[in-house]
Every structure is written in structure tokens, then in C-alpha cells.
Amino acid sequence: MASGQKGSLENNHKEIRYICPKENDLKDLGLNSQEKANLIVSHINSQSKEHLKGKSPLEVMEFMNPALYQKFKDFGIERINKDNIVLKPYLLKD
Predict the structure, then answer these.
(1) Is the Cβ–Cβ distance between 15 and 48 less than 8 Å?
(2) Angle, CA of 35, 30 and 41, to the nearest 5°
(3) How far apart are CA 51 and CA 35, in angstroms?
């Protein structure tokens, strides 16, 4: 991994921790299926990023590689409207 990528990875880890705080049982939080994991990924990657000039990673992927974006959608990872992004533990509650 290039040193320039490590910061992005740490930021993603921090965003995951907003939804799944340390020392909490993931199943108790509601992370009990692939669909819930996809929901986390969808919300995190729908958030705009300064280094992407205000675009989200999923927006950039959809523009740069529509076929890959379609595969993500087929797998259950989709862009979330910016007004509906949730990075809190209650995202996983039914």
C-alpha cells in the first residue's frame, strides 16, 4: 500500500467507528448480515470527500467506470442521497 493511501484508509476506519464504536458487539449494534455491511459501505462511500472535489467515491466511480459501479449496485452497494447519509450506530437498527 502506498503511503498516500494510508490516510484514506484511516479515515474510512474512523467513519466505520462512527457507526460501529469500539467495545460494542457488532451483532448487538445490528450488524448481522451482508446487507447491513453493504449499508455501512453505501453510507460511507456516499459522503462527499474534499480530496474528490466535493464528490463521493461512488459518484466518481459511476462517472469513471459505470460498469464497475453497476457491479457494486448488483452486489447491494448504492449511492445514498447526501441528505440521508447516517454515520451513527442507529443506521443498523431495524
Answers:
(1) no
(2) 45
(3) 28
What tens-digit pLDDT sequence spans the chain (94 residues)? Answer: 565 555 566 788 899 999 999 999 999 999 999 999 999 999 999 999 999 999 999 999 999 999 999 999 999 999 999 999 999 999 999 7
**Cα(5)–Cα(71) distance, rounded to whole angstroms?**
23
Instruction: Please report which residue ranges of the chain form alpha helices under DSSP H.
Output: 3-19, 26-29, 34-44, 57-64, 66-75
Set of cell numbers at residue 12: 474510512
